[in-house]
């Protein structure tokens, strides 16, 4: 498997933009890499992201997989940037 960090980060950024009405990633932590299933034919990478949209910040779990799918899950909203950074780190640990 070829590892292209820029491609993965671009997919995370696009998922946040698409799923959170134009939000932008301000920070992220990779929490699980290559979660495999189906005898290794399927994998996911899981990130916790802090994001910002206008004056609102929050955090989400973002999954990307080898099928080209990306999605945001389990979000926290209405935070300051500092609260989002702290929450991201807490959720990633």
Brief digest:
This protein has 93 residues and is an alpha+beta fold.
What does this protein structure show overall?
This protein is an alpha+beta fold. It has one domain. The chain has 2 helices and 4 strands; from the N terminus they run αββββα. It has a 4-stranded antiparallel sheet with strand order 1-2-3-4. Strand 1 and strand 2 form a beta hairpin. The longest helix has 15 residues.
Largest sheet: 4 strands, antiparallel
Helicity, in percent?
A: 25-40%
The global form is globular
Query: Strand share of the residues?
Result: over 45%
Describe the SSE topology.
Elements: H1 5-19, E1 24-37, E2 42-53, E3 56-65, E4 70-79, H2 81-92
Feature tags:
single chain, 2 helices, alpha+beta, 4 strands, 93 residues, 29% helix
């Amino acid at each position: 498997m070829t590892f292209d960090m820029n491609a993965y980060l671009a997919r995370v950024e696009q998922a946040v933009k698409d799923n959170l009405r134009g939000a932008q990633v301000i920070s992220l932590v990779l929490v699980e890499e290559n979660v495999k299933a189906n005898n290794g034919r399927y994998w996911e990478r899981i990130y916790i992201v802090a994001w910002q949209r206008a004056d609102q910040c929050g955090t989400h779990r973002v999954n990307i997989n080898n099928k080209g799918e990306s999605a945001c899950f389990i979000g926290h909203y209405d935070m300051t940037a500092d609260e989002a950074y702290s929450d991201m780190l807490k959720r990633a640990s």
